[in-house]
Amino acid sequence: MPLFYQPNVTSGEHFLDGEESRHCVKVLRHSNGDAIEIIDGDGSKYTAVITNANHKKCEFNITEAIKKQHPPHYIHLAISPTKNMDRMEWLIEKIVEIGVQEVSFILCKNSERRVLKIDRLIKKAISAMKQSGQFYLPKIHELNSFDKFISDSVQEEKFIAYVDKSNQSFLHKAASAKSNYCILIGPEGDFTKEELQAAFDHQFNMVSLGPSTLRTETAGLAACHTLNLLNW
Amino acid sequence: MPLFYQPNVTSGEHFLDGEESRHCVKVLRHSNGDAIEIIDGDGSKYTAVITNANHKKCEFNITEAIKKQHPPHYIHLAISPTKNMDRMEWLIEKIVEIGVQEVSFILCKNSERRVLKIDRLIKKAISAMKQSGQFYLPKIHELNSFDKFISDSVQEEKFIAYVDKSNQSFLHKAASAKSNYCILIGPEGDFTKEELQAAFDHQFNMVSLGPSTLRTETAGLAACHTLNLLNW
């Protein structure tokens, strides 16, 4: 059954927004009486019947609702954006498939990209959520300074990935199951010594993601996958 | 120091091949006496000095050699190629970064791509090996039929990833550390029941990579990362 994304269904808004309406009615040519599925990105999936196949505001009646519980853990990935935006779009697609709850972009001393538009990243996330059968859309935040981010961070288990051959504290051994995590991934030139110290001062623990030197986006994905594995 | 790839250095061939010579001499403008680094993709890294900066056959003298041992485990990923080649190139880049020893492409009933050129994939692998500081280049095989592949497979621990909500045997719990593994990843439409049965007949065990439905290339990467984590 065709699947659409519409937030705030629970608040009684039983219509698809502009883009999804157009896709439903103009592209897929659905009409009144057709059955569709809707996810709200907040844990619910609905089966519905189209009552007004308007390509600007397609209305529907809900016939069935399923609510999926949150996973027992929470992953907040904070990552320095790469110069090449394709790599960030790719990362978002992959971590949504694998599972992540929150994504922040952090501006570090060595960040190669100083400006970031998150609209396209949110679209990528919605598309990956639909594709992979996820019920939750992760929160994706605008670019923020490293210092502000680490001082605001509230997760229980906080980690900073750092490339240091002598660092043998692997993330998969340092993190506990069923916890909520924040993991910082730095830019290609890595975090500076000052950033590392500031993270320590805010109770972040230095971890390694493995013996290889990973690209930023590979490290982001590896971190999310590692933390999920601890909880499966 | 600039890094080049040249296989068979140990057999006494102390020059870079055509493309690497051109890159070294024409693009990077190295000349006689310059120091370079060379990896042979078979565990060795050399420091060398250019003795003849010829852009077709750049000769060098080795001044130092380091040999890196194989990891204690061996991962053979066998995957159905996706329709979109970018996704396979991406996969190769990522699994070389993360670590994989052998990659096979398998033609399944539901494979969307029936022809595959591996030249570009090998180039991607070489580039990722250089970028990520790996010493070994994985073996990458031409497309082979599923049946032929599973009957020829010689790994100790053999797995087939299959999307089945009732399948709770996760790869990270089913596999042992320090072993050699073969893991099969199917096409978008997954393996057929007949392929699954044929794999069982050849001692492959059905595993899940997690609760999400992953794209083919995401599954390939997740499988390699999971098996590596067991050994770190």
TrEMBL record, chains A, B:
Listed InterPro entries? Alpha/beta_knot_MTases, PUA-like_sf, RsmE, RsmE_MTase_dom, RsmE_PUA-like, tRNA_m1G_MTases_N
- List GO terms (cellular component aspect): cytoplasm
Spell out the subcellular localization from the entry. Cytoplasm
Q: Which GO terms describe its molecular function?
A: rRNA (uridine-N3-)-methyltransferase activity
Pfam short name (any one): Methyltrans_RNA
Q: What class of enzyme is it?
A: transferase
Q: What's a BP term from Gene Ontology annotated to this protein?
A: rRNA base methylation
**What are the Ribosomal RNA small subunit methyltransferase E PUA-like domain coordinates in residue numbering?**
16-62
State the reactions this protein catalyses: uridine(1498) in 16S rRNA + S-adenosyl-L-methionine = N(3)-methyluridine(1498) in 16S rRNA + S-adenosyl-L-homocysteine + H(+)
Q: Look up the EC number in the record and give it.
A: 2.1.1.193
Q: Which range is the signal sequence, renumbered to this chain?
A: none
- Known function: Specifically methylates the N3 position of the uracil ring of uridine 1498 (m3U1498) in 16S rRNA. Acts on the fully assembled 30S ribosomal subunit.
What is this protein's record name? Ribosomal RNA small subunit methyltransferase E
Organism, as annotated: Fulvivirga sediminis
